[in-house]
């Protein structure tokens, strides 16, 4: 393999990961919860947001997780309704977070 083909291979393999990592890393790992809501990280690899009635309407929990290959993934929970409630985002099997 010559240098030109090595550089092309490196660009094909690494560039998407670098670009995707830069894009995803622009997102916050954990924004402060909305007023009337609280965040719970007590269970490893998951985030639960609990909101009082009328608080956090339309919001959802999200957590950034990293898989064993180092790729970042964003996991999103269900949306909080007008009556409050909770939203839980969980890393997939083999991932860890928040990162």
Walk me through what this model shows.
- The chain is an alpha+beta fold.
- 23% of the residues lie in helices and 31% in strands.
- The protein starts with a helix and ends in a 9-residue tail after the last strand.
- Mean pLDDT is 78; it is low at 9-29.
Please tag this protein with its features.
elongated, 1 helix, alpha+beta, single chain, 99 residues, two-stranded antiparallel sheet
State the strand order across the main sheet: 1-2-5
Supply the helix-strand structural class. Answer: alpha+beta
Overall form: elongated
Total number of helical segments? Answer: 1
Oligomer: single chain
Distance between the termini: 37 Å
Order of helices and strands: HEEEEE
Strand content: 25-35%
Radius of gyration: 18 Å
Percent of residues in helices comes to: 10-25%
Nearest-integer average pLDDT = 78
- Strand tally is 5
User: Biggest sheet, in brief?
Assistant: 3 strands, antiparallel
Task: Provide the low-confidence segments as ranges.
Answer: 9-29
